[in-house]
Amino acid sequence: MCLCNQCICTGLRNKCTYTDPIYKIKQGTEKNLILKEVKCRMDSMNSGDVFILDTALNLYVWNGKDSSPIEREKALVFASSVIKARSGKTKLIVLNEGANDECTQFWNKIQGKKKVMGMVVKRYSIKTEEEGGSDEKHNAFRKKMYRLTDRSGDLKFTLCTKGNMDKNNMVSWRKLDSGDVFVLDDGFKIWVWVGKGTSLREREMCLTYSAKYVKRYNRPTSLPIQKIEEGKEPPEFIENFGHFSEKNCVIS
């Protein structure tokens, strides 16, 4: 059974080409955290960051011995969001480098050597924190919000606004409109905000368009997609906006 988010949102499980991705969580410039997919090899990993392997049935969080507390905390928050989006059908397994990371199922998924005609020609190894690179050299992900509307008669999915990097990557709440659906990518989750006055077609197609966005723009396939209704926004969504309130939304 496939549990990847694109299949959950679109229902097209028979067309799934899901492979086990591994992600790096790194604290980048201005303390912003970054989620990035890397090659599933030992030399993609380092002791200074946190890595998440998603096999759909299991979600492994591997904490490098020199990773920061904020990276570890964000990894657990992200993992919890993924598991919740899959109705708890994925199991969380936390591994700490040098302590309890002797997990055969995990390491069997990570490529440790290169073979040519059955012969080992190269061995890969985990890098040190220094070899993993400075956190300050990694740029933060810029949040993006898209609008899904059928006001012209056809469904259109267009970029609405981006996070303001001078204001801690905040997104403008002024773009929200009760008559449409808005899809916000905050780097760790896809939020699908449904306005009170949206059409039936917009409501029916919003998750499909969100999944298509993930695929088209090569976003991490494990990103959880959460649909929320106007007026019922959770704190995790609101924190992406500056001075957000329900009264700020434009009523069509």
TrEMBL record:
- Domain Gelsolin-like, by residue range, is 36-98, 171-238
Transmembrane spans: none
What are its GO cellular component terms?
Answer: actin cytoskeleton; cytoplasm
What Pfam families is this protein classified in?
Gelsolin
Q: Which InterPro entries match?
A: ADF-H/Gelsolin-like_dom_sf (IPR029006), Gelsolin-like_dom (IPR007123), Gelsolin-like_dom_sf (IPR036180), Villin/Gelsolin (IPR007122)
Q: Which GO terms describe its biological process?
A: actin polymerization or depolymerization
- Note the superkingdom of the native organism: Eukaryota
Q: Name a GO molecular-function annotation.
A: actin filament binding
Write the protein's name.
Gelsolin-like domain-containing protein
Give the source species.
Answer: Aplanochytrium stocchinoi
